Amino acid sequence: MKNTLTFSNIINILIDNKKNTYPQYLLVADLFGLDLGIDFYAGETLGVADSNTVRISNWCTGKRPIPLDIVQENDADNFESMAERFSENICPNILNITHARSETEKIIKENVMVLGEEMADAMTLTEDNCDFFTSVIRYAISNSHSQGTFFSPDLADTLLNCHTPRPVMTFTGRDTEAKEAYKMLSKEPVLFVSGIAGIGKSEFSKYFAEKYEKKYTNIIYWFYSGNLKRNITEMDFTSDRIDMTDAQRFHAHLQYLKNLKKDSLIIIDNFNVLPKEEPMLKELIQYDFSILVTTRCKVTAFPVF
Questions:
Q1: How would residue 124 be classed by pLDDT, with cut points 50, 70 and 90?
Q2: In this predicted model, which residue has the larger pLDDT, 1 or 240?
Q3: Does 234 share its domain with 284?
Q4: pLDDT band at 299, cuts 50/70/90?
Q5: pLDDT of residue 2
Q6: Residues facing residue 237 across a β-bridge
Q7: Range of the domain at 211
């Protein structure tokens, strides 16, 4: 059974019942205690209020998940803070809080089999509306029901390169293989796509990225340079400074990668060396993100497609 107790569904109930003078972006900013003048990802004052409102819109539509750091800042230890923001800022701007609660309780009842009766009852029996919505929102943002893990931070506005090229228009007929590869990657941290030169491995990886784009928060594409440290160093983030050395860039970029979870994919294309010849690969596999590798080599120590 698909869990419909999602942030997108709950926040849109509040949006449908709010005052017209209380914009969506302000409601969400109040909910999480966000400063619209501070970049949500870089943590710097950049005059980015417009960019932040676009990000908030993506969260509300379900196009993008709530960033991990915001999830963690609004965990159980900060329950009272969110409830206070509901009481002071949000509930006074909801025209029909009773109707909003009734619609939310319907979703809870629809998901009793997923939530369990104890949790569902704990939510619906909460008398105070502010505490009720806080508990529901906290549950919705802190659970990935498809994977049981937190989402990765969204790098869409932070990483300026490493975008996957689109496959050629003539590439067709690999839907079954792409589906099988996706199943394998959901169970394994890394998958090698192996075959002779010219068989279409690179185009397959691009096609895979295009087909499953919505399944991943981030897809990072590297054409193997002969050295994965170099690929990492040559990534271009908005936080990079002109005076950074290669070593500083590498370590700063690696920190971004360490924060990625299973819902992020790194594609390493044209990796035509044996895994044991690239020590950085062994380290990357230890992290939580998924890795898809195309290679001409015959690989035996890892899952191969």
A1: very high
A2: 240
A3: yes
A4: confident
A5: 63
A6: 159
A7: 175-295
Tell me whether residue 81 is in a domain. yes
Q: Which residues of 193-225 are buried (b: 16+ CB within 10 A; e: fewer)?
A: bbeeeeebbbbbbbbbbebbeeebbbbbbbebe
The encoded tokens of residue 255 equal: 């920190």
Per the listing, tokens 């972006």 go with 25
Note the pLDDT of residue 99.
95
Please report whether residue 153 resides in a domain.
no
Q: Over the stretch 202-228, which tens digit does the pLDDT of each residue have?
A: 999 999 999 888 888 899 999 999 999
CATH number at residue 197: 3.40.50.300
Q: Can you tell me the distance from the alpha carbon of 186 to that of 172, in angstroms, rounded to the nearest whole number? A: 23
Ranking 15-19, 210-214, 245-249 by mean pLDDT, the lowest is 210-214
Cα 64 to Cα 52: distance, rounded to the nearest angstrom: 13
For 187-200, the pLDDT digits (tens) are 888 999 998 888 88
Whether 60 and 66 have beta carbons less than 8 Å apart is answered as no
Question: Count H helices, E strands: the chain?
Answer: 14, 4
Phi and psi at 227, nearest 5°, equal -160, 110
Total number of domains constituting the chain: 2
Does residue 289 lie in a domain region? yes
Residue 162 lies in a domain: no
CA distance 162 to 267: 10
**Backbone angles phi and psi of 294, in degrees to 5:** -105, 135
